[in-house]
Amino acid sequence: MTENVKKSSAAAILLAWLLVGIPLGWGVYNTLLNSLKLFQATPAPTAAAK
Amino acid sequence: MAFLSFLDRERSIAQPGYSRWLVPPAALAIHLCIGQVYAFSVFKIPLTQAIGITKSVPGDWTQSQLAWIFSLAIVMLGLSAAVFGKWLEHAGPRKAMFASATCFALGFFISYFGVISHQLWLIYFGYGFVGGIGLGLGYISPVSTLIKWFPDRPGLATGMAIMGFGGGAMIGSPLAIKLMAYFRTPGDVGVAPAFLAMGALYFLLMMFGVFTIRVPRDGWKPETWIAAAKPQKLITSHNVEVNTAFTTVQFWLLWIVLCTNVTAGIGILEQASPMIQELFKGSIGPVAAGGFVGLLSLFNMAGRFFWASTSDFIGRRPTYFIFFTVGAVLYYLLPKTGADYLNSVTLFVGISAVLLSMYGGGFATIPAYLRDLFGTYHVSAIHGRLLTAWSVAGVLGPVMVNYMREYAIARGADKASAYQTVLRIMAALLVIGFVANLLVRPVSEKYWLPEEKKPIEQMA
User: Fold this and answer.
1) pLDDT, tens digit, for every residue of B162-193?
2) Which of B49, B236, B427, B429 has the least CB density, counted as fewest CB within 10 Å?
3) Average pLDDT of every residue of chain B
4) Burial (CB count <10 Å: 0-12, 13-18, 19+), residue B24
5) How far, in Å, CA of A27 to CA of A19, rounded?
6) Domain check: are B315 and B196 in the same one?
7) What 3-state class would DSSP assign to B188?
8) Among B217-231, B268-282, B308-322, B433-447, which is the least confidently predicted range?
9) Does A39 score more than 70 pLDDT?
10) Helical ranges in B19-119 per DSSP H
11) Which 8-state DSSP code applies to residue B373?
12) Domain count, chain B
């Protein structure tokens, strides 16, 4: 007798990943924006160097 | 209660055809939510102005009073993970995740009443105590399930989930800021309704995890995977019960490994903003330092996934050897990048980023290391007990950094060079971790679970 196997659909898997991926992506995007402030810092004055 | 029977382990056994790739998002749904705890500090300033609205007035809470909320939550995380781990193995991940979601959301709701009635003890009890239990249950609940679904890539699987804990703060912080701004009125700082909204939103996302998670049926293994005929020396095919594991040398060696790695990482995290400003005085201000902290959190998260996945290929012990050798050298070199020596912000940021990736990697690789040594039978429970190392490191790291720094300054060192002392101590801590990792040996046969108690999926 053949067992009736109901496979998880690719759409369901994609949806599941989107459900967690979208908020995570939004959080990473916000953090990246915040991180950019480091690279927009005023250049170091030469006097600061030894 | 009959209506909660859908939470039973038996009801969450996967039917044939269920894709194991649905399990990591279910686990991520939990970790992304509970990771919010690291963003709790965004509520601190508004909470200090709950009465005065635009500024703190007499009767408003102080920052030091509010700091206990986070500390209590983290202590409860460690305690609940240690206490409820064994129950979780018996009850199954779905019930544990449901309990976690309920406690975590309830913590926000109780805190809502704490804010509107201005009763700080209600926030301690709500977010700190009840929410903290939700954190501990949620942190360990998907671990053994993921390892059972991914016997071929346990590091990758647990790395994905624990990466979510790092990512949770990145979501929690902007979400809280936007919600407080939305609910803010001339007479309200907006924290209370933000608590209600976050409790509800997090509960919903965690319910997605609850309903999606499945445990593999007996005897299941990946179609294309064949267990190694001759396992590697440090990967057991046997199981050790949690109470027995607790008495082994291996458990305590891994406890030291985790504790030293986390303590050293917290040393940077705790001082990241003032450290970069003091080492590069005049060139890095508070705004750029804030960007540096954000960058570190990205590397902390990415490191969890990268190092845990890498450990599947190079092994768990070599992965920690990298953390402890490379880490010790980098901690030693870090202060030399400052304005008094190399004067390279790029080098300082690069080294710090690598160090933070290894800090996150340490958290994410430990469940797979435990699985290698103690098997899958009680791996979540053993992991729960090992997390007490995190609780200790959470206190030890900041105390060591602050105390040692103040001591160096008191002895005449300037602020920048005081970091040298602190970071050398962190490097020494990693040497202790290296020795502990070096001493790890396979668990003796006398600790193995008898064959008849072995989980069925391993006997297949």
Assistant:
1) 999 989 989 999 999 999 999 999 999 999 99
2) B49
3) 91
4) buried
5) 13
6) no
7) strand
8) B217-231
9) yes
10) 23-34, 44-48, 63-91, 93-116
11) H
12) 2
Residue B150 and residue B248 share a domain: no
Residues B29 and B142 in one domain: yes
| B269/B189 same-domain check | no
Chain A contact probe: residue of B283, B297, B336 with most A CBs at under 10 A: B283
The pair of structure tokens assigned to A31 is 């953090």
B280 plus B365 within the same structural domain: yes
Which one of B28, B204, B278 makes the best mutation probe of the A interface by having the most chain A beta carbons within 10 Å?
B28
Residue owning tokens 């679904």: B149
- Secondary structure of B158-204 in HEC code, one letter for each residue: HHHHHHHHHHHHHHHHHHHHHHHHHHCECCECCHHHHHHHHHHHHHH
pLDDT of residue A3: 58
- Nearest by CB to A16, which of B25, B167, B174? B25
Pair B358, B324: CB distance under 8 Å = no
Same domain, B316 and B429: yes
Q: How far apart are CA B239 and CA B456, in angstroms?
A: 12
Task: Specify the CATH number for the domain of residue B258.
Answer: 1.20.1250.20
Q: Which residues on A lie below 8 Å from B337 (Cβ)?
A: none
Containing structural domain, residue B390: 242-450
What's the pLDDT score for residue B458?
A: 46
Q: How confident is the model at residue B221, as a pLDDT?
A: 87
Interface test with A, best of B205, B295, B348, B356 (most A CBs within 10 A): B295
Contact A49, B343 (CB under 8 A): yes
What lies within 8 Å, CB to CB, of B342 at 6+ separation is B336
Q: Please report where in the chains the tokens 């509960």 appear, as a residue.
A: B203
Read off the tokens for B335: 């202060």
In chain B, which residues have their Cβ closer than 8 Å to the Cβ of A45?
A: 282-283
Q: How confident is the model at residue B211 (pLDDT cuts 50, 70, 90)?
A: very high
CA distance B238 to B377: 9
Task: Collapse the DSSP code of B220 into the 3-class scheme (helix H, G, I; strand E, B; otherwise coil) and give the result.
Answer: coil
Q: Which of B194, B212, B230 is the last residue of a domain?
A: B212
> Which tens digit of pLDDT belongs to each residue from B42-53?
998 999 999 999
Residue B422's nearest CA partner among B336, B352, B359, B331 is B331
**First and final C-alpha spacing in chain B:** 34
Q: Are B297 and B251 found together in one domain?
A: yes
3-state secondary structure of B294: helix
The nearest CA of chain B is from the CA of A1 a distance in Å of: 15
A·B CB contacts under 8 A: 122
Query: Residues B256, B194: one domain?
Result: no
The domain boundary, picked from B174, B197, B212, lies at B212
